[in-house]
Amino acid sequence: MQVGMNLPVMVPGLTRELVREWCLRVDAGPWSSIAAGERINFANPEIMVTLAAAAAWTSRVRVGFHVLVPAMHSAVLLAKQVATLDVLSSGRVSLGVGVGARAEDYRAVGAVWDARLLSRLERSVETMKSVWRGGYRPDGSTCAVEPLPMQTGGPELLAGVLMPQAIARAARWADGISGFSFEPSRDDIEMRFESARSAWKEAGRDQPPKLVTGFWYALGSDPDEQIGAYLERYLGFMGEGAGRALAPNIRTRTPGALRDALRMCRDLGADEVLLVPTGSDPDEIDRAAQIVAGFCG
Predict the structure, then answer these.
(1) Quick one: how far is CA 89 from the chain centroid?
(2) I want to staple 243 with a disulfide (CB 3.0 to 4.6 A). Which of 108, 145, 153, 231 is the partner?
(3) pLDDT grade for 297, boundaries at 50, 70 and 90
(4) Distance (Å, rounded) from C-alpha 254 to C-alpha 245?
(5) Residues 238-265: pLDDT tens digits?
(6) How far is Cα 259 from Cα 176, in angstroms, rounded to an integer?
(7) Facing residues of 154 across strands?
(8) What is the pLDDT of residue 99?
(9) Judging by beta carbons within 10 Å of its beta carbon (0-12, 13-18, 19+), is residue 76 exposed, middle or buried?
(10) pTM
(11) Is 57 helix (H, G, I), strand (E, B) or coil?
């Protein structure tokens, strides 16, 4: 099992120096990837620019989108941006895509939030794959959209979906799934992994799905306050006090609890776990690295 690390992009106060330090420490540690998730209507850095910086400041780890929301973008432009990043990172991009969970992000960019989000995600994916195969020319154009990604056919595509029906649809086009578990919970991770295994088999896929999950953690001097403050801010759209109310359910706030959670994911067959920090102190990387080293391989 591999273990990757998210950048603390949802924590306030990020600077060039802080993000660079996170990138350098992750690249020097036992981590498989460095990742970031997308939000629009929130005080966080834009995902494409952030991961471009991460690609420049690293040379070993994969550069992961956890996750990107294609329905909020032009699929052709997105394909060009991701291909460019793949070239500049020497083929290290891993692309998780989903529909997101916040209508306000869609409204902020003038995109449509409705019941057809999964269908639009699938159309966006097909367009991106067409661009990456080469020879994609918009009507009337004499030139193809390039560059082509360094990884032939494009980077791996992971579906950021959580429910069995959406997982079944993802088996048509994804290389695997990239989920998230709040607590983390054995039941919901197992449900998603089993749903993916079944869906890939029923779809007649030659290769089993790549199984990725993630969860929050805190190993600082006051993990209870760290997690509480983080969730109150990040989950503010759910209403005042919602984040603080959820915080006691997050178990990964001690070295032992983090070790147990990683062991659980390994036993369930995870190919990769993405840790999501709730604070921006770079020492959180080193504290976690001491625990995850034994799980990586």
Answers:
(1) 17
(2) 231
(3) low
(4) 19
(5) 888 888 999 999 999 999 999 999 999 9
(6) 24
(7) none
(8) 96
(9) middle
(10) 0.96
(11) helix
